[in-house]
Amino acid sequence: MHYLGLDIGGTKMEAVLLSPQGDYLWRQRRPTQKDSYDAFMLHLTRIIDEARAVSPEPFSVGIGLPGAIDPQTELIKNCNCLVLNGHDLKTDLATRIQQPVWIANDADCFTLSEAVDGAGAQADTVFGVIIGTGCGGGIAVHQRLLQGPNAITGEWGHNPLPAYTPVFDGPVQPCYCGNLNCIETFISGTGFARRFPGELTSQEIIDAAENGNPQACAHWQHFIDAFARSLASVINILDPQVIVLGGGLSNVDRIYHELPTAVVPYLFSNSCHTRIVPARFGDASGVRGAAWLPGLNTRET
Fold it and tell me: I want to staple 125 with a disulfide (CB 3.0 to 4.6 A). Which of 95, 107, 240, 271 is the partner?
């Protein structure tokens, strides 16, 4: 049995076919079809048909997307590919391709990938963190995703920033979710850049800090402190063996030198033995995790 993974993003769709050992057998990237749900489904089934044409044996189908299945209705919710919201994608696709389909949030897929054969492969408990446009998360225990009744496991980015004060953290930050001072508004790549004066990108701010710009240096140090406070609240509850970082900001090497030390003062411990590491598979972790869903997750049509 091979494993087909599909990663559905707001602008692109990626598909990979993996062997049981995790080797790539086939890989494709296409623009996401967002004109209508029917057009999206046609596009998706064509990709699966192409995979069938090249696969020497049957495969399972797993999908990661930036949204979730509502546990009460089984319909997609909170997806930035808006044509999917309100539809039973899992059942509709399974009916069209005549085989079971597994679906999970993209941050969960990222976490699963890194827990199975990525940077957290030897750990019992992995907390996956994406610090990119948003600030998602997922939890894997013994290489299986934790899933709860609200379909929000690991959504730490929409907890309020711990110990927020206007003097230290600046003005109140409204979040698109309707709440104030969500962690995402401070430590996502989007929030990091938005709160810095001017129109600089995250990378330009980081470069300025590396070159000694005082304002950029202060902004970076606040980012590390806010990140540390936020992770400490997770470690105090979950105590994971490994925290794996993905997303654009995860590519900044100095995070892995500064963050482990910065976390300690906020922990209910005088030291931190949780490893904080970059993702092994980078941007490919999401689609690889989607591929692993059928073998390591219990949600099935």
Answer: 240
Residues 38 and 81 in one domain: yes
Report the number of distinct structural domains present in the chain.
Answer: 2
Question: CA angle at residue 112 from 108 to 113, to 5 degrees?
Answer: 120
Q: Give the span between the Cα atoms of 190 and 122, in whole angstroms.
A: 32
| Best CA proximity match to 206, nearest among 192, 195, 187 | 192
Q: Is the pLDDT of residue 167 over 60?
A: yes
Residues in the chain: 301
Each residue's pLDDT tens digit, 171-190: 999 998 899 999 999 999 99
Which two structure tokens, joined as six digits, stand for 90? 């899992």
**Beta bridge partners of residue 68, listed in sequence order:** 77
Given this model, what pLDDT does residue 297 score?
A: 53
Closest CA to 289 of 162, 70, 102, 94: 102
Domain span at 272: 122-279
Residue 168: inside a domain: yes
Do 9 and 130 lie in a common domain? no
Q: Average pLDDT for residues 194-210, to the nearest whole number?
A: 95
Nearest-10 crossing angle of helices 89-97, 37-54: 40
Residue 294, number of CB atoms within 10 A of its CB = 22
Q: Could you tell me if 104 and 227 lie in one domain?
A: no
3-state secondary structure of 87: coil
228 vs 267: CA distance, rounded Å: 9
Indicate if the pLDDT at residue 300 is higher than 90.
no
Over pLDDT 90: what percentage of the chain? Answer: 86
